[in-house]
Design brief:
Layout: H1 24-27, H2 37-46, H3 49-66, H4 68-75, E1 89-90, E2 97-98, H5 100-103, H6 121-157, H7 159-174, H8 177-192, H9 202-214, H10 218-231, H11 235-242, H12 247-255, H13 260-283, H14 295-304, H15 307-310, H16 312-339
Antiparallel strand pairs: 1-2
Helix pairs in contact: 2-16, 3-6, 3-16, 4-6, 6-7, 6-9, 6-10, 6-13, 6-14, 7-10, 8-9, 11-12, 13-14, 13-16, 14-16
């Protein structure tokens, strides 16, 4: 029997080779940079075109109000000078209406002049935006501070403190808000008349800030209370208690920062509510009074002399600005609420 020839060994194919050992670099999990809550919220807001458009409108309105004196000086007009001469107002066709070249935007008066007194509409719109936004922002700050502090105290302490604050919340929420504000605003203005807040145009502004801020905190306090009831049982709060931290320190440093998302959403939704409330009160004659300009006061002036029938432009300008501003704040508030929602899958 002959021996069979010995065949050379076949080189191993790639499939036969053992898998190369994984290196440390390939097995290590990818490093993802952690984002804060506000950073995540801003990233989500940036991805929404509607939110960015609303934010742009809000920024423009704030700049329009902040730069009101500069813009009025650039136009060369002011919000208080009256023009009742026959070369500005028509004394023959429709008495009190601006002449055709003063009724609508022109080189001298960018938004025309108002009927009756001939004051510059653009200057009054700019200074009126300043008054309206200041009232809305300050009233929102008052409501947010009261609602956050009282809601956090009720949820953290519980017991009798919670019972007393909760009953006060129920009392504030039970009253019809608009009727209460309408009845109390004139009373507060008469009380503040003899104080430092009663000087000039500061009186209606201060009274509206106090009234709107004081009666707008209850809903936020209820929401914050519900959040704090669950937060106070968390481990980090128990650890702060074990280390001997005071109640004030725990509320301000441990609890309040964890409800700031809810507070921020409420604030963005409360600003347009206060803008509308100021306009409504001024329209009804219990808010900002003439000659102090505000958008609500301009609407009141348009309907008092029935000017909106013969000169709808005088009504359309402040009404349009009010609608655009409130809509922008509401859309921005919705975007902030969605961005701060931990259950959202976006971002």
């Amino acid at each position: 029997m002959t021996d069979s020839p010995v065949l050379p060994a076949r080189p191993p194919s790639g499939a036969d080779l053992p898998n190369p050992p994984a290196t440390e670099q390939s097995s290590a999990p990818p490093v993802v940079a952690a984002r804060s809550l506000l950073g995540t919220a801003w990233l989500r807001v940036r991805r929404s075109r509607i939110a960015l458009a609303a934010l742009a409108v809000v920024v423009l309105m704030v700049l329009f109000a902040a730069l009101a004196p500069l813009l009025s000086a650039l136009e060369g007009q002011d919000p208080y000078t009256t023009r009742t001469s026959p070369d500005v107002l028509d004394d023959y066709g429709t008495p009190g209406l601006p002449l055709s070249y003063y009724r609508y935007p022109s080189a001298d008066h960018w938004l025309g002049v108002e009927p009756g007194l001939g004051r510059d509409i653009f200057a009054r719109m700019a200074h009126g935006a300043q008054v309206s936004l200041v009232i809305a922002l300050l009233a929102t700050v008052v409501s947010v501070v009261l609602g956050t502090v009282l809601g956090a105290a009720a949820g953290y302490f519980g017991g009798k403190v919670d019972m007393v604050i909760s009953r006060i919340m129920d009392l504030f929420l039970a009253f019809p808000h608009l009727l209460l504000v309408l009845s109390l605003t004139p009373i507060l203005q008469s009380r503040l008349g003899d104080t430092a807040l009663g000087e000039g145009s500061l009186l209606p502004i201060a009274s509206l800030v106090i009234i709107l801020g004081f009666f707008g905190w209850a809903y936020l306090a209820r929401v914050v209370r519900g959040q704090v009831l669950s937060i106070r049982e968390q481990e980090f709060v128990e650890a702060a208690r074990a280390y001997g931290a005071s109640h004030r320190s725990i509320i301000l440093k441990q609890i309040v920062p964890n409800v700031m998302g809810v507070v921020l959403v409420y604030a963005t939704m409360m600003i347009p509510t206060n803008i509308t409330a100021e306009a409504a009160l001024s329209f009804l004659g219990v808010g900002v009074k003439d000659p102090t300009p505000s958008w609500g006061q301009m609407l009141n002036a348009a309907q008092q002399g029935n000017w909106y029938l013969t000169d709808p432009w005088f009504l359309a300008v402040p009404a349009g600005a009010l609608v655009i501003t409130v809509l922008a704040f509401n859309l921005l508030g919705d975007a902030v609420r969605d961005a701060l929602d931990p259950k959202s899958s976006r971002g």
